Amino acid sequence: MAETVFGVGVIRWLVLGSLTLNRLFFRPPPPPSLIPTMAIESAPPVLTGVAYFAINGGRVDFVARALGCYAIVMALVQLRLIPVYARLSYSPGFWAFTFSYAIVATDALLWLKLTRPPGATAYVIVVVTLFIVAIARPYRRRARPGPVLPRATTHAAVLG
To answer: Class of 2-142 per CATH?
Structure first.
């Protein structure tokens, strides 16, 4: 199973990551409600890293380090986007953070298991849990009958 997840992670990373970056560079910017979905770009290297640790028995080698370093780069990109995210109105797109950072936390916990810094495991679990609760709170406050997503004006606007 780990080999399958690893393969899916690598293929998704190469194909869909290229398409996403192409859209960001050469097309108009996405609507504000979809900007938080850029957090999903941090998932492929960490998902692939988690699968790779399952394949190689949790040993750190060149591939594990390469995936870990790229995950750090993607985390730094997300840190750079915090001011952009902070200016946005809350939308369902913010739920993209939940999976992305849950898998980031999983990968971080695997790395922490190898290095064993004191208290770091609890810190990662608390930070990610609070982050996901922070995403859920505004959604719960806004919960009301009716559609969750805004209605698109035209079919072409949705497809870009």
So the answer is: mainly alpha
